[in-house]
Each structure stands twice: as C-alpha cells, then as structure tokens.
Write a structure and sequence with these properties.
alpha+beta; single chain; 3-stranded antiparallel beta sheet; Peptide Deformylase
Length: 148
C-alpha cells in the first residue's frame, strides 16, 4: 500500500469506522512503513487507500500514537499558524491557522475509549490527520496562504 497522491479520488471518499479484527493490524503495519519511508510526522489510513477512521503520529521518542475512530469534540477559539505539508500533495506547503487547543475522543488498539486534551503543535498534527479522515486536504483550507 503506497501513499495516494492528489488528485486521487480515493482521498475524498467518505470514511467508515474501524472494525477490531486482523485488518486493523494490517493497516497499522502499512501506516508505520509509509510514515518512516516518507519521513512524515503523521499519516491517515485514507492516504494509503483504506477508507477507515485511523491515523498515527510519530512522537518525539519515535513511538507511535494510534488514534482509532477519532472525533474532535471541542476546538478553542485561540489559533496558531504553521506551514503544513502533506504526504499526498508533493512539494506543497501552506500556512494554516488551526485551533491551539482541542479535545479528541478516540479508541486505542484494545478498543479502550480515551478523551485527550491536546495543545500546540500536536494539536496541529491531530487536526491535519483528522481532516484526512473527514476527506479534506490542506488545499481545502481557506484561512491560509500558499508557498510552493
């Protein structure tokens, strides 16, 4: 499973809940390979052709944070900006304004529910990957400026 590149229509399909079966571990394996090979910070399953609600982030100590069937419950009205790139859009960066603080509801690999308060850069990364789960790319963001 390789990363899909814009304008691939699969990137814009409606995504479904993850089922807890062997396919979950298959998906995680390919997400981990792709994030390492492509030197990414995060990757969502729709970026490799799976239309399910799953993304991973690589943290500061090279461990994976796994987010299954996630949903942002709350976003602050305080914003921060960051030049974002995307593994599905080659050589394209865009200044995006995102909420500085969010609350994320998600499940782990053991199907345990979590509610997490996330701030600063990690908030940006989570919102970016959550956009993929909702079939949006940074090209769709209007509150921004473009650098190519």
């Amino acid at each position: 499973m390789k990363i899909l590149i814009f304008p691939n229509k699969v990137l814009f399909l409606k995504n479904k809940l993850i089922s807890y079966n062997l396919s979950l571990y298959f998906y995680l394996f390919y997400l981990k390979i792709n994030i390492l090979v492509n030197k990414g910070i995060g990757i969502a399953l729709p970026q490799i052709g799976g239309n399910r609600l799953l993304f991973i982030l690589l943290n500061k100590i090279n461990k994976y944070n796994i987010f299954i069937n996630s949903k942002i419950l709350w976003k602050s009205n305080l914003y921060i900006s960051f030049y974002e790139g995307c593994l599905s859009i080659k050589k394209f960066y865009k200044l995006i304004y995102r909420s500085k603080y969010i609350i994320l509801l998600f499940y782990d690999v053991n199907n345990k529910k979590h509610k997490l308060f996330i701030k600063n850069k990690k908030s940006i990364y989570v919102q970016h990957e959550q956009d993929h789960l909702e079939s949006f790319l940074i090209l769709n963001k209007f509150n921004s400026s473009v650098v190519e």
